[in-house]
Amino acid sequence: MVQHGYLAIIKSIKKYKHNSNSFTTYCTNTITNSFNELLRKEIKHYREVPTDIIDLEEDYSFSIEDEVIAYMQLKDVIWAINELPEYERNIINNIYIDDKSTKEIESLYNIKYKDIRNLKRRAIRKIKKSLNINE
Fold first, then answer.
1. Does a structural domain hold residue 58?
2. pLDDT in tens, 41-82
């Protein structure tokens, strides 16, 4: 990071136009942009794109590798859901796949909101355990 900061300062000295802005502001902006660019490269390397943290100026296109990874993860999630007991699987499908409200699920299965919430929480815990995801 320090080395990139020094390179950014050298770059700002070389490109600075006299009487345009304050040099300190120009240099600070150049360093900030350099760090953001470095972070973008690292994020793309790990295939994570948190757009709320870093403002990406270009669209991120997914590679074949990204699609294969997503497909494999989806297969694992589907397998974990299919391992659930039928009543928990139905609750998860109704909430996340069919996008039904809690009221609809209450009337469909004739169970209380509290029980739906507990079933959902238990099912998600089991899915995370199957996928080796720590809470």
1. no
2. 765 555 544 555 555 455 556 677 777 888 888 888 889 889
Enumerate residues 6+ apart whose C-beta is below 8 A from 40.
54, 56
Residues 3 and 30 in one domain: yes
Q: In terms of pTM, does the model score above 0.70?
A: no
- Cβ pair 88, 126 in contact under 8 A: yes
| Same domain assignment for residues 69 and 17 | no
What is the token pair recorded at 91?
């609750």
Residue showing tokens 């900061």: 5
42 contacts 49 by C-beta, under 8 angstroms: no
* DSSP collapsed to 3 states, 37-103: HHHHHHHHHCCCCCCCCCCCCCCCCCCHHHHHHHHHHHHHHHHHHHCCCHHHHHHHHHHHHCCCCHH
Residues 6+ apart with CB under 8 A from 62: 70
